[in-house]
Amino acid sequence: MVSKNQIKLITSLQQKKYRIANQLFFAEGVKVIQELLQSNFELEHLYTTQHDFDTVLDSKKSLIHENDLKKISALTTPNSCLAVFKIPEEKPIIASGLIIALDDVRDPGNIGTILRLCDWFGVKQVICSKETVDIYNPKVVQATMGSITRVNVNYVDLPEYISQTELPVFGTFMDGENIYKTNLPKEAIVVMGNEANGISETIEEITKNRLSIPRFGDLQQAESLNVATATGIILSEFKRNLA
Amino acid sequence: MVSKNQIKLITSLQQKKYRIANQLFFAEGVKVIQELLQSNFELEHLYTTQHDFDTVLDSKKSLIHENDLKKISALTTPNSCLAVFKIPEEKPIIASGLIIALDDVRDPGNIGTILRLCDWFGVKQVICSKETVDIYNPKVVQATMGSITRVNVNYVDLPEYISQTELPVFGTFMDGENIYKTNLPKEAIVVMGNEANGISETIEEITKNRLSIPRFGDLQQAESLNVATATGIILSEFKRNLA
Question: With left for phi above 0 and alpha for psi between -120 and 50, is residue A198 left, alpha or beta?
Fold first, then answer.
């Protein structure tokens, strides 16, 4: 059984203000929940329709009916389990190596995919502007496929942070230098912009290294690259000589 | 006004069998519809809530109320317009240059993003296995952002096609050769696999060139790359020396 109060609390966690008020978030599906359990995330409570998760104390889990899972799930087709976790304290920024900075990226699927790419390419730090979508949004947690446990994410005043960093700052722009012909350093901050508007003017002014992913084809009519696929191509270029 | 029969027809086009039966599909939003109109797609009928699309004959368009648009739209938040188009005849396969082959890619967002990437990188031909999601699925049409008009897509018996081609065939596998250290040809077929299972056994057997996108980081725990972001990285590698 899931009580009415529990349903109310868990569904409220789909909204950022209630996540902040309660300092809780939730994840769905065996794989993601297991990765969170194995990392330093503190379990509040696990709801599962199966006799699984043997390592979780009985006091911390409830066996529930599929119909109850539907009531608390954020998915159209609920998985077999949902777990509520405490939002951990933000860790200090790892101000070295390759860092991805997100300037108002709004789509949960995009930031989820970007965290997964960072995980793949060994990027340990993502810095987000305050307007970037919250990583504890259930859709982000889902899209990261567990990478949320391995990439450090901080929300900062991005223009301020970037104006003070000693690392070289890169951004992609239509008129930037061909990324394939640029010497890319091992340590840098790479700024990825908003889905509709790209990199904001304030950040553009302080971004000294302007890159561009060349567009091919006779017509060159392709609109643009999605911010997540562009991040993949850029990370691949920064890392390819180290492989 | 949209008649009950029109609502029934248009909503039925969300399903492949009715798209095939009627040889119709629909697109939503000014940008995508305009790109389809400017290309060789034959308009069946346009439904719009605005006084726009001046070039479309009055007999081919209806000014409708937002509430009616909601009834025919496949989107949670409908745009301002929806247009029904005839499904064009399949054009012959362009059997040269760089070709992307999709081996049972199922997610509409993924194939949409892949077509957008092909458009960006000047790839003119995509070959799909019969089980790959239909490109006239409304979610695919939406995700391509107009690229559907510039990339030729054919559905074929993929194992048969690949076993007969004279082009070199590449695929990505966990144990493949480091893609960053491989000489990649200008002309090739690159196979991208299913989201859950990767490239099928039948196709794997006839794929002579095994590539791998190296994984970085100390732990190397990242699960996998999404098929669309992997396609972006691979296309970038095949094209980077030509930019």
Answer: left
The nearest CA of chain A is from the CA of B113 a distance in Å of: 8
At the fourth CATH level, the homologous superfamily of domain B4-86 is: Ribosomal protein L30/S12 (3.30.1330.30)
For B131, the token pair is 């089980």
Domain definitions of chain A by residue range: 4-86, 98-242
Cα separation of B16 and B21, whole Å? 9
Contact yes or no for A120 and B222 at CB 8 A? yes
Q: Does A94 touch chain B (CB under 8 A)?
A: no
List chain B residues with CB under 8 Å of A233: 232-233, 236
Q: What is the ipTM of this complex?
A: 0.91
pLDDT per residue, tens digit, chain A (243 aa), is 799 999 999 999 999 999 999 999 999 999 999 999 998 899 999 999 999 999 999 999 999 999 999 999 999 889 999 999 999 999 999 999 999 999 999 999 999 999 999 999 999 999 999 999 999 999 999 988 889 999 999 999 999 999 999 999 999 998 899 999 999 999 999 999 999 999 999 999 999 999 999 999 766 677 789 999 999 999 999 999 998
Say yes or no: B89 contacts chain A, CB-CB below 8 A: no
User: Exposed e or buried b for every residue in B78-109, given b needs 16+ CB within 10 A?
Assistant: bbebbbbbebeeeeebeeeebbbbbbbbebbb
On whether the B98-242 domain is CATH 1.10.10.10, my answer is no
Q: Do A180 and B219 touch (CB under 8 A)?
A: no
Which chain A residues touch B122 with a CB distance below 8 Å? 215-218
The length of chain B is 243
For residues A120 and A62, the answer to whether their CB atoms sit within 8 Å is no
Q: Is A146 on the interface with B (CB under 8 A)?
A: yes
| HEC assignment per residue over chain A | CCCHHHHHHHHHCCCHHHHHHHCEEEEECHHHHHHHHHCCCCEEEEEECCCCCCCCCHHHEEECCHHHHHHHCCCCCCCCEEEEEECCCCCCCCCCCEEEEECCCCCHHHHHHHHHHHHHECCCEEEEECCCCCCCCHHHHHHHCCHHHCCEEEEECHHHHHHHCCCCEEEEEEEEEEHHHCCCCCCEEEEECECCCECCHHHHHHCCEEEECCCECCCCCCCCCCHHHHHHHHHHHHHHHHC
